[in-house]
């Protein structure tokens, strides 16, 4: 059994039962989570993460009219590991996960954890229990592979929130702007790349893993990222004001850089890139176009190169970014730009191509990350227009410092 | 350190004026370099002082019992330090950077400095004022 994924080629997104999904790797998932958990002195970070997961997953499981089997299959198909929730009853019980994406990702990135780290999974289990029994549950991870256990165990008890706010689903969708002329000034065939990516086996294996491009991928919930990022921002502001908001946005943008470095870097060093995309690349600039084409297969919206001054400056226009879709629907309009992931992604892309010389296939180590984003004339990016602020599309500029 | 906040703000104003003047010279690399040299010392001293300011602010917040402020200051410190080093590199290599690189880097440096000053005046300096007031009231 597998759960149907609906593609929306006109929107450059994919969804399951009306809930948008995007590909992200363990580097981004774990770094983003850690950035939030590290602020636990200021807010209830673990609850923030678990609550958001429960809301978004429950909305999807309800739409799927999911049984426990469906939830388990979905969990593995999305790359989160192997979930066993069969022992749960209306009184609760234990669920287990083998090969948890978050636990293994945390271990490989940060080493052994002092406490369980599968906050998203706890929310997923809460949603699965709620869907199965039609009642409220609270879930706590009592053993975690990241902190030395053989499997991740989740204790489920009746209680908790009586109802959950529904996810905003596909979010606020608006017409795309006309694609800039610069978007096609390349020998890279974006259509062929998107078609090829759609044919890649990017569903979880029997072990609930999606290993591709040298990273561990998930087909994650767009609205999970949106809820945890923007609630993080909100909660930081409410407890510590403007300073906390500014700090939160720095952390969220850095998570985007981490994502670009590892995921974009991994893709540009992958066999798939070597076989399909590199032969189309006649110039260094084509590597930028090639990566933008791959991004357009990840469910992040439609990225277009609007201007590219080789080695100096990149301007990107993003139609239907999942961040702005979700922000507008869940939080309304904003006074400031909201696409932190895409901002970090823009600087990350230019740094990989023109600063870290990704064409020479360097090892994507923490040391290289540090060097790439802090030494020499690296690129910095900013979002100059954002749909959440009323623009028709989101626009990003990366420039060399 | 109270005096240093006021001095930082005055310095922000002087540097902003110098950057605005620099923007009018962007078509003339020689004139731009000559102008930037006149403000180089102030900019370098300013950013070096800021590098020292953040650890001092974190210590002040801790002393004032403002754990949240200290925590946030550490986040700012690491982010600002990276930018600071890049801005200092730009001003230290005015004579040796190729003209084309200098012009485009100047625009980026201006953007980064303005964003930084704005963040500091909006978010960081109030942390200082808050903790300083606490220490005044409960030394």
Mind summarizing the main beta sheet of chain B? none
Inertia-based shape of chain B: elongated
| Largest interface (C-beta under 8 Å) | A-B, 28 and 30 residues
Count of helix runs of chain A: 12
Q: Which consecutive residue ranges of chain B, at least 5 long each, have pLDDT under 50?
A: none
Globular, elongated, flat, extended or rod-shaped: what is the shape of chain A? globular
Give the fraction of residues assigned to helices of chain B: over 70%
Distance between the termini of chain A: 51 Å
Rg value of chain B: 17 Å
Radius of gyration from the alpha-carbon trace of chain A, in angstroms: 20 Å
- Helix tally of chain B equals 4
Unreliable residue runs of chain A: none
Give the helix/strand class of chain A. Answer: alpha+beta
Number of strand elements of chain B: 0
What percentage of residues of chain A falls in helices of 4 or more residues?
A: 40-55%
Order of helices and strands of chain A: EEEHHHEEHHEEHEEHHHEEHHHEE
Count of strand segments of chain A: 13
* Largest sheet features of chain A: 5 strands, antiparallel
Percentage beta strand of chain A: 15-25%
- Compressed to H and E, one letter per element, the order of chain B equals HHHH
Quote the average pLDDT of chain A: 96
What does it look like?
The complex is a heterodimer of chains A (401) and B (139). By secondary structure, chain A is of the alpha+beta class. Chain A has helices at 26-37, 45-64, 68-77, 101-110, 119-133, 190-198, 222-268, 271-277, 284-295, 322-331, 340-354, 366-374; strands spanning 6-8, 13-16, 19-25, 82-84, 93-98, 137-143, 152-158, 210-212, 215-221, 302-309, 313-319, 379-385, 394-400. In chain A, a hairpin with an 8-residue loop joins strand 6 (137-143) and strand 7 (152-158). Chain A is globular and about 60 Å long. The mean pLDDT of chain A is 96. Chain B has 139 residues and is mostly helical. Helices cover 88% and strands 0% of the residues of chain B. In chain B, helix 2 packs antiparallel against helix 3 and helix 3 runs antiparallel to helix 4 (99-137). The A-B interface holds A 39, 41-42, 239-247, 250-251, 254, 309, 312-313, 373-374, 376-378, 380, 382, 399-401 and B 67-69, 71-72, 75-76, 79, 82-83, 85-87, 89-90, 101, 104-105, 107-109, 111-112, 115, 119, 122-124, 126-127.
């Amino acid at each position: 059994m597998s759960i149907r994924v609906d593609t929306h080629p006109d929107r450059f997104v994919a969804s399951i039962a009306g809930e948008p999904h995007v590909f992200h790797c363990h580097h981004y998932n774990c770094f983003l989570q850690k950035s939030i958990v590290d602020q636990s002195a200021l807010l209830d970070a673990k609850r923030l993460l678990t609550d958001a997961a429960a809301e978004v997953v429950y909305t999807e499981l309800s739409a799927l009219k999911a049984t426990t089997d469906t939830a388990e299959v979905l969990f593995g198909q999305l790359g989160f590991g192997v979930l066993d929730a069969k022992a749960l009853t209306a009184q609760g019980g234990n669920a287990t996960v083998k090969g948890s994406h978050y636990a293994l990702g945390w271990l490989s990135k940060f080493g052994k954890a002092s406490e369980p780290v599968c906050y998203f999974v706890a929310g997923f289990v809460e949603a699965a229990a709620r869907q199965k029994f039609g009642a409220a549950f609270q879930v706590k991870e009592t053993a975690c592979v990241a902190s030395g256990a053989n499997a991740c165990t989740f204790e489920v008890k009746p209680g908790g929130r009586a109802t959950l706010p529904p996810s905003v689903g596909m979010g606020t969708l608006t017409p795309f702007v006309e694609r800039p002329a610069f978007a096609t000034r390349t020998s890279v065939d974006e259509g062929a790349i998107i078609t090829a990516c759609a044919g890649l086996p990017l569903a979880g294996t029997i072990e609930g893993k999606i290993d591709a491009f040298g990273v561990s991928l998930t087909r994650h919930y767009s609205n999970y990222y949106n809820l945890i990022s923007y609630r993080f921002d909100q909660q930081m502001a409410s407890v510590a004001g403007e300073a906390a908001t500014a700090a939160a946005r720095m952390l969220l943008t850095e998570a985007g850089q981490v994502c670009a470095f590892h995921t974009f870097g991994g893709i540009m060093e992958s066999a798939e890139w070597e076989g399909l995309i590199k032969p189309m690349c006649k110039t260094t600039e084509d590597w930028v176009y090639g990566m933008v084409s791959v991004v357009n297969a990840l469910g992040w919206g439609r990225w277009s190169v609007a201007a590219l001054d080789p080695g100096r400056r990149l301007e990107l226009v993003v139609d239907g970014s999942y961040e702005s879709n979700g922000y507008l629907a869940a939080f309304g309009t904003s006074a400031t730009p909201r696409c932190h992931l895409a901002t970090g992604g823009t600087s990350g892309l230019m740094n990989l191509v023109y600063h870290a010389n990704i064409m020479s296939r360097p090892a994507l180590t923490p040391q290289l990350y540090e060097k790439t984003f802090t030494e020499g004339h690296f690129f910095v990016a900013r979002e100059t227009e954002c749909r959440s602020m009323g623009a028709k599309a989101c626009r990003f500029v990366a420039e060399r410092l | 350190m109270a005096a240093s906040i006021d001095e930082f703000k005055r310095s922000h104003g002087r540097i902003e004026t110098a950057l605005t003047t620099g923007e009018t010279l962007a078509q003339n690399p020689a004139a731009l370099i000559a102008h930037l040299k006149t403000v180089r010392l102030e900019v370098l001293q300013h950013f070096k002082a800021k590098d020292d300011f953040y650890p001092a602010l974190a210590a002040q917040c801790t002393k004032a019992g403002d754990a949240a402020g200290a925590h946030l200051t550490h986040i700012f410190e690491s982010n600002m330090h990276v930018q600071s080093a890049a801005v200092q590199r730009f001003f230290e290599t005015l004579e040796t950077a190729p003209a084309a690189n200098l012009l485009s880097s100047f625009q980026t440096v201006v953007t980064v400095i303005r964003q930084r000053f704005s963040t500091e005046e909006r978010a960081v300096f109030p942390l200082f004022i808050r903790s300083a007031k606490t220490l005044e009231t409960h030394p």
